[in-house]
Amino acid sequence: MRDYFYGYPRPDGQAGIRNYVLMLSGTLYANPTCERVAYMVQNTLAIVHPLGRCQIAPDLAQTKRTLVGHGLNPNAGAVIVVDHFKEQGCTADEIAHEIARSGKPVEVVNIRREGGAVNALARALRAAVEFQRRISGQQRERVPLSKLIYGINCGTSDVTSGLSANRCVGWVADRIVEAGGRALVAETTEMMGGEALIRAKAKTPEIARKILDMIDRMEQSILACGVDMRGSQPTGDNIAGGLSTIEEKAIGAMQKWGTKTIVGAVGYAEPIGPEPGVWVMDTPGHGGESITGICAAGAQVMSFATGGGHTINHPLMITMRLTGNRESWKKMGDTMEVDVSDMFRGTSLDKAGERLFNEVLDICNGKMTKAEAMREFNGFAINRCGPSV
Amino acid sequence: MSLTALIVHRDDNVANLIGAGKKGQSVVCATEGASQQLAIRLLEDVPANHKFAVRDIKAGDAIIKYGLNIGRASCDIRKGQYVHVHNIESNRGRGDLSGKRRAAGSSLSRRKTSAKSKTAR
Asked: In terms of pLDDT, which residue wins out, B112 or A123?
């Protein structure tokens, strides 16, 4: 079993598996500048969103934390933050200041300061070209697997998920944790019913309590809506796939967590600690918001297990998708990288898990996912915790 | 040819069919980590990979899968019957139920103290 990958070491000790120039939009109105530069300059990614303005303080802080986390993610070799005037509490200057502490090159482009959209575009384009000249010569180096944060998520789950694909992800998580790495799981809604597993696996009662409180807050917010959440959780496609209740979905989903100790829990898009093991993040079940929180914590690669098939992937955190449903593989094969449906025809978990492990490491070493090859990016979505005002 | 199904845990009262099943077909159920097999005749059609009962289940009884409680029966279910949203329901996230019934659910009773809190975060 390989215990290393070839990555891009960063000044702060992390290691990227890609070496992007990141065009990070601070606000809705800076999105076109970021998108145009990413279109024009090779190996350059735009992170764009509708937020960054008229949000109440805790919600704006969450947006900023998510954006800073993306700038700090080691898959970004250099970052250009763009905003249009002054987003109090979430300015490009503030975002860039926090990213610059990592030691990676960071630039700010303010549309008003530059004298309008045309000048801002020229400045951002020039900066992106210069950054490419600075970082594109960096060679991959052999780094230990302990540098990996393995993001874990699932969506459009069906009854095959908990019996096959999710178990394979758990198997890979076990191997990465054994090598000193960290596995990062999320989706608080999909822990409702799995409390016994959390109590059994948390390193301390305090960690278990923190996660159970997260689940309780999520459930109370659902109860306050006064409806049966069935149809939303489990979703319509979950139900079509044979999952009857949120508990069944949750316990199946938690097969992805593997068998190792839960060593900590964090809030949405917060950084995780250095301790090897399984980390839990408080996110909704919403796929895009959940994987975006995980990327902000520094995960370089993600396994996304699906039953019915799923197009989801995150532009910056390289997302490989797998299914244990043979029909889905046939129908949606161009949105997934690994088929483990042979587990229902006698293939052992060890064999299927090793196949997934090898694909994850190959992707860390530079092998493209199908979404990367197609530039089919869709999974960036920042979770809200307040209204627009 | 007979069908096969998977019982994840020996305490489970439901199994997942591998493939799709027709009423009257016989299913060989294997339990993970156990050598003995159980033969069950389907009383109804079961869509691919969905669940069916491996024991008679009374209305209100817990549905057990993975050895854990995944909901409760909303009516009596006979061994071999298809099990899904038409005959089982969740104990969790049920904002549609009255406060009294919610508090009575075993998994929710410990939450009574915080039940007044509004939206999270």
From this structure: A123
Query: With 90 as the cut, is the pLDDT of residue A27 above it?
Result: yes
CA–CA gap between residue A262 and residue B99 (Å, rounded) = 33
Domain hosting residue B35, numbered range: 3-111
DSSP calls for chain B: --EEEEESSTT-SEEEEES-B-TT-EEEEEETT---EEEEE-SS-B-TT-EEESS-B-TTPEEEETTEEEEEESS-B-TT-EESTTTEE-SSSBTTS-HHHHHHSTTTGGGGGGTT--S--
With cut-offs at 50, 70 and 90, classify the pLDDT of residue B115: very low
Residues in chain B with CB shorter than 8 Å from the CB of A160 are 49
A104, A10 in Cβ contact below 8 A? yes
- Of A158, A227, A385, which is closest to B95 when you measure between CB atoms? A227
SS3 readout for A185-221: ECCHHHHCCCHHHHHHHECCHHHHHHHHHHHHHHHHH
Q: Does the pLDDT value for residue A254 go beyond 70?
A: yes
What integer best gives the mean pLDDT of chain B?
84
- Give CA B19 to chain center in angstroms: 18
Residue A226: the pLDDT is 84
What ipTM was estimated for this complex?
A: 0.88
| Terminal C-alpha separation, chain B | 55
* Total domains, chain A: 2
Q: Which two tokens stand for residue A17?
A: 């598996």
For residue A46, give the 3-state DSSP assignment. strand
Q: Decide if A219 and B18 are in contact by the 8 Å CB cutoff.
A: no
Task: Indicate the pLDDT class of residue B113, thresholds 50, 70 and 90.
Answer: very low
Cβ contact, residue pair A247, B6, below 8 Å: no
Closest Cβ opposite residue B120 in set A197, A218, A327: A218
Decide if A212 contacts A265 (C-beta within 8 A): no
Q: Tell me, what CATH number does B16's domain have? A: 2.30.130.110
Q: Are A159 and B85 a contacting pair at CB < 8 A?
A: no
Residue A79: domain span: 20-135
Same domain as A359, residue A210? yes
- Interface A–B counts its CB contacts (< 8 A) at 121
A174 and A259 in contact (C-beta within 8 Å)?
yes
Strands (E), chain A: 4-9, 15-16, 20-25, 44-47, 76-83, 106-110, 141-144, 149-155, 182-185, 262-266, 277-281, 301-306, 318-323, 338-339
Asked if residue A42 and residue A180 are part of one domain, the reply reads no
Spatial distance between the Cα atoms of A372 and A370, rounded to a whole number of angstroms? 5
